[in-house]
Every structure is written in C-alpha cells, then in structure tokens.
Design a protein that fits this description.
By secondary structure, the chain is an alpha/beta fold. The chain has one domain: TIM Barrel (Alpha-Beta Barrel), CATH 3.20.20.370. The chain has 9 helices and 13 strands. Strands 1, 2, 3, 8, 9 and 10 form a 6-stranded parallel beta sheet that branches. α1 runs parallel beside α8, α4 runs parallel beside α5 and α7 runs parallel beside α8.
C-alpha cells in the first residue's frame, strides 16, 4: 500500500490592533504592532526560502488605507454585543486618516506585500474581528459582516475561500452562513477542554494555565482523528494542532521544549500521513523579532527534512481543502495531480509528538 504524504499547514491571524483593542490599550501594545510590519516581510522571505504556502486570515478593515473609504464600506447591520466594548464601531471616528498616519488600524500595503509572494493565501478573519459566541452577536449581523469582507476582497481581485474565526469562536450556525456564502474551509480548534470554543470571559485562569503548560510539555494527549461535530456538507475543517507561542525572555530556558513539542508533532504527522497545523499572529513576532525568526527558521528547516524524507507537503488551508471531499462525519482524501496522485490524509491530524 502506498503511503500517503502528510501535510504541514501554517495559518496566521492577521489583525493588527483590531484583534486586541478590547483587551489591551494601544500604548501598551504599539511596539508589537509596529514590529509586525518588520516581521511580516521576514516571514514571507522565510516562506519563499522553504517553499512554504501559508494562509493569512485577514481582518477586512485592513484592506483599506484611508478612513473615508473604510467608513463608506461599513455594513449597515452591526453586532449588538451585550458588552459594548467588544464592538469596534463606536471607536471608528478616533482612528487615523490613513495608513501612513495610523499604522495600527490599516494594512493595505502589507496585504499587497503578501500577495507578491507565491503560494500565500489571503483568507478572512471576518470584516470587523467579529466575535461569534459573545452575547448579542446575532447570526444576521455575522452574515452582513462576512458579506462585506468578501465583497471588499473581491473588489481587490481576491476570491476568499477560507475563514479563521476570531478567538476561535466557531459554531454550527455561523458555519452554515459561511457555507452559503461559498467558503470551503475553516480552522477548527485543537482537541481538549482548554481549546474548545467559548466566550472570552470564560477563559479561566486554569484554562489559560493549561494551554501555556501544554505548549512545552505533552498534556493534550496523543494525535486524534478530526471528528469535529461542526463539519458541514460543504466546508472542510482544517483543525489547529498547535499555537506557536512567541519567544519570551522569561521562559527562554524552555524554548527548546516548545520547539521540540512542535517538531515531534510534525514528524509524527509526516511519518503517518497526517496533517499538522501551526498558527500564530504576525504581531506575536513584533517584539524579540530576531529570536522569533530564528525559532521559525528551525521549524521550517525541520519541515524541509520531513519533505525530503517523507514527502510532506506545505499547503495553504484552501489547497488542503481542495483535496478533501466530505463523506459523512469524516473527511475522505482524494487524489490530485500536483500531489503525484497521492492523496494527503484528510481524516486525522497530529496534535502531539507521540513518537520519534
């Protein structure tokens, strides 16, 4: 029996200040956001060097470089969050007039830079960084938000196929909307209690502590089949395997454990024809950029070894989904010419090293 090649997926939640505005004051996070503008070209250069395709899940607001154009595009139906601080709309008048004067809320030049590099997929992170599971987030407002995100991208010649939900707040009703609007892939959560979709205020200290510890030592168990109950008839779940935590001087002695946790999972996936999905935010690399890039280079170098030894493939989420076919509760593989007629395994993914 011919062994199926594994798949290595990278997705990035590209949001700038829109992703943290409700939890961090701008003055406290400005260095990370400015640093992201330095880190993104360096990431792209590494992806080019190692021939790695990646998915950039982009907040729709970032497609603009001028406030007047952004305000003109805003949907008329907006989220009615019970917690009003979650909505960006009351604060729109305070943003700068252009990307040049306000590099924290606009990202058009960065999107154009990403598009210049082969194999990089522009996906959506919703238009307004929409929180699907927060109280007051009605499905109708989500539909209006997503329709706007797709239209704005289409006006730039981008047909979006993939969605990553902000804060990983994914639910079946919202997936149905995505499917009706033509999206084909989404990033599901990795297995385990600490990673399940939830409202922001339910992220307990215990949940956060478990996720932190799990980044360095194996707490979330062995690789599991991706039997996500949220799968739809037309959308492919490309579940997360691991969040790439940024370099921390405080935890620098544990960096080798974090990287070993990731590379062991990648190796397991390559050996067994599974999928390994690594994700992070570009602004995570905005500080300690040199150390973060060095770590990423080591991970990509490991991928290159797996590609040489076991024919592992680096795919965007949309590329991965195009070679999957829904069939009942699990996703079955189908062959593709560019895969040399060998299907990537779609029904399982690796979350843990598990083996050598």
């Amino acid at each position: 029996m011919t062994r199926r090649p594994g798949a290595f997926i990278i997705s990035l939640d590209f949001e700038l200040y829109w992703g943290v505005r409700d939890v961090l004051p701008l003055d406290r996070y400005r260095d990370n956001l400015l640093g992201a503008r330095v880190a993104i070209p360096q990431m792209l250069a590494l992806f080019d060097e190692f021939d790695v395709h990646a998915t950039w899940a982009t907040v729709g607001f970032l497609f603009f470089d001028r406030r007047d154009a952004l305000l003109e595009a805003l949907p008329s139906v907006r989220p009615g969050y019970v917690n009003p601080s979650l909505s960006p709309y009351p604060f729109m008048a305070a943003i700068g007039a252009s990307e040049e004067s306000d590099p924290f809320h606009y990202g058009r030049s960065l999107i154009e830079e990403i598009r210049r590099h082969p194999g990089q997929e522009i996906a959506t992170h919703t238009f307004s960084h929409f929180y699907c599971l927060e109280a007051g987030a009605e499905t109708g407002a989500f539909r209006a938000d997503l329709e706007t995100a797709l239209r704005v991208a289409r006006d730039d010649g981008i047909e979006i196929q993939t969605i990553v939900f902000p804060r990983n707040q994914v639910s079946a009703p919202h997936l149905r909307v995505c499917s009706e609007l033509g999206l084909v892939a989404y990033r599901g959560t990795q297995p385990g209690w600490a990673y399940q979709p939830s409202q922001t205020d339910s992220h307990s200290t215990a949940r956060r502590a478990l996720r932190l510890a799990d980044a360095y030592i194996s707490l979330s168990g062995e690789p599991k089949a991706a039997t996500d109950s949220l799968e739809t008839a037309t959308m492919v779940n490309v579940p997360a395997s691991r969040f790439l935590r940024p370099y921390s001087p405080r935890l620098r002695r544990l960096e080798h454990l974090k990287e070993r946790r990731i590379t062991r999972g990648m190796t397991f996936a390559a050996r067994h024809g599974l999928m390994y999905h690594l994700w992070w935010h570009p602004h995570n690399f905005g500080r300690h950029t040199r150390e973060n890039m060095s770590g990423l280079r080591r991970i990509l170098s490991h991928f290159a070894q797996l590609r040489d030894r076991w024919d592992m493939r680096a795919l965007s989420m949309a590329e991965y989904a195009r070679h999957a076919r829904p069939a009942g509760p699990a996703l079955q593989a189908r062959s593709a010419a560019e895969f040399r007629n060998q299907p990537v395994a779609m029904a399982a993914h690796a979350t843990d090293g598990g083996g050598r």
